[in-house]
Amino acid sequence: MPSILPLGDPAPPDGLLPAQALDGAIGRAFGLYVHIPFCAVRCGYCDFNTYTATELGGGASQDAYASTAISEVELAVRVLAGSGLPARPLSTVFFGGGTPTLLPAEDLARILTAAIDAWGLEPGAEVTTEANPDSVTPGSLQLLADAGFTRVSFGMQSAVPHVLKVLDRTHTPSRVPQVVQWAREAGLAVSLDLIYGTPGESLADWRHSLETALSYGPDHISAYALIVEDGTKLAAQIRRGEVAGIDDDDHAAKYELADKLISAAGLGWYEVSNWARTPDQVCRHNIAYWRGDDWWGIGPGAHSHVGGVRWWNVKHPTAFAGRLASGASPAAGRETLDAATRDVERIMLEARLATGLNVVGLGETGRHAVAGLIADELVDPALAFRGRLVLTLKGRLLADAVVRRLLPG
Description:
Blueprint (H helix, E strand, L loop, with lengths): L29 E7 L25 H21 L7 E8 L7 H15 L1 E11 L6 H10 L3 E7 L3 H6 L8 H12 L2 E8 L6 H13 L4 E6 L7 H7 L8 H17 L3 E4 L2 E3 L7 H7 L3 E5 L4 E4 L2 E5 L3 H9 L5 E6 L2 H12 L6 E2 L5 H12 L5 H5 L2 E2 L3 H5 L1 H8 L3
Parallel strand pairs: 1-2, 1-9, 2-3, 3-4, 4-5, 5-6
Antiparallel strand pairs: 6-8, 7-8, 10-11, 11-12, 13-14
Helix pairs in contact: 1-2, 2-3, 3-5, 6-8
GO biological process, one term: porphyrin-containing compound biosynthetic process
Main location: cytoplasm
Protein name: Heme chaperone HemW
């Protein structure tokens, strides 16, 4: 089942934000995330807030979802204006899920058009949709491009059939080069998502997946280590001994291979799990998350953040639609972050970026840790001496440990 929502304070029915959200807002970028909570099949490793057709009750049909999402766009306009936030055009829009492209391309275009009508788009704004390789056609991709989408992120995951089978992926490897070509013909930038460390995946399997993905010439690659989440089908299979468990040394070897091959193909890392062919082709929407910009999350279970105020919507599509139909905010809870918490989160997130952390912005614990991080070859020494902490390859493998050393105990 999907993961549990965090604890927090009750969110007001009108959704209005406290005064803290206004501080410095005019200087912060504003983005939109649109959650499409539908999947054809629930993958065994996934604990995202997604639903197959058989898991949905009444009032949550895919046919009505675009109109429901547009209702939250309209609510967001009222909440932001009513809270005194300045009008800001969208710098990024990201449709995620789930499988956004399970909805008709016309519905995704309707939601995007409503958002553009509400806020406008900055010149050159990035507009991305995630997609499964078996959920698009040449026509649907062209329609999305014509509507204003600029980028598509395909969930390739692996080029090896037995690995895809363990992950419960529904596409075949031969489908990926076809959809990449269609996206190119539509004028869309292409990102490929890969997962490593699947039970039964050998290092040779992973090399084959990397080399195959790179042969398609993507603009961007994300490579994530498989995490086994409690409550998923895969967790149960591992617990019963039906498939092997996860091995940290295996993950490390596969990450090192990924960085070697992806870098050799001309893509540079800009975040621990992400590589782009040029600086212009990084995922700017994710960068906005990592740098603490403002964004509104549309959809059931979606999270939002404005000026240190974070909130999250009710999880189930039926409850989500019901709240909006009654004129109430779909927010289930929220929290207002104090300065110390925001600083901790900034360190946790910015440490993972190739741009690194400013040593001056660290607390006493972090500044005292710098010499040890250099000695342990976890950060670039030349950049550290110039006041910037940037992870080495070894440091990227141990990024969480680096962050722990930078933060007060």
